[in-house]
Amino acid sequence: MGSTLSVDLNADVGERFDSWRPGDDEAILKVVTTAHVACGFHSGDPTVMFETVSTAVRFGVSVGAHPSYPDRQGFGRRPMDIDPRRIRADVLYQIAALDGIARAVGTSVRSVKAHGALYNRMAVDADCAEAVAKATRDFADDLWLVVPAGSLAVEVARSSGLRVAEEAFCDRRYSPDGTLASRSDEGAVITDADEAAERAVRLVRDHEVESTDGGTLRLSPSTLCVHGDTPGAASLAHTVRAALELAGLTLGSFSAR
Q1: DSSP string, 235-248
Q2: How far apart are the first and last CA of the chain?
Q3: Torsional sign, CA 250, 251, 256, 257
Q4: What residue ranges of the chain have pLDDT lower than 50?
Q5: Number of structural domains, the chain?
Q6: Which residue of 6, 49, 137, 254 could cross-link 250, Cys pair, CB 3.0 to 4.6 Å?
Q7: Taking phi first (over 0 means left), then psi (-120 to 50 degrees means alpha), and beta for anything else, what does residue 173 get?
Q8: What CATH number does residue 184 fall under?
């Protein structure tokens, strides 16, 4: 984090199937500093991608790709036994698709963050993490790769020569081993904005977060995530940002550093 105590606040957005159904994305994009946009494999479509990136540009938000397993039915949250060679190709395809749209509206993809089950697998599977890192570097060697803070994916990504942003979640609970608690567990998703804000400040200022067993995990995130599909996400993001600023922290995209 460095002595400046700055942090990025990111959200996963563009995660809807109906191109014309309004969501909370615009309200969220008024608050966050980085937007990771679904690339069509778990959610979204070309029109949603175009609308989401255009809105991000309007609010001066850095754009990142949010690739996934090919799993629209399961919203990318079902574990899939996919060979790392295919993961590399699938991720590269998704980055390229979003970057094409981004360039059409005057920006470009600056970061990559895997979604759902693919993201969780990266945290514990070095071959999977390497496949995502290779795909990212295949596209451009100056991209940032967002990985779970404190996981083995951090070293894998750094070894690939990529810029790395370690991520923590203020709207999710952590298991004692540092992985995210399963969404099927009661209370795994935090919807109370004040609680999420308190966790966010503690993560950035103290590099700590409470695990589900009451213990303390040490994490050093450079970016915090609010999920775009968390109930009340826009309000939660607003409360988190306000708390970070009140604590004297500077907000800005890691990709601008």
Answers
A1: HHHHHHHHHHHHTT
A2: 12
A3: positive
A4: 1-2, 20, 22
A5: 1
A6: 6
A7: beta
A8: 3.20.20.370
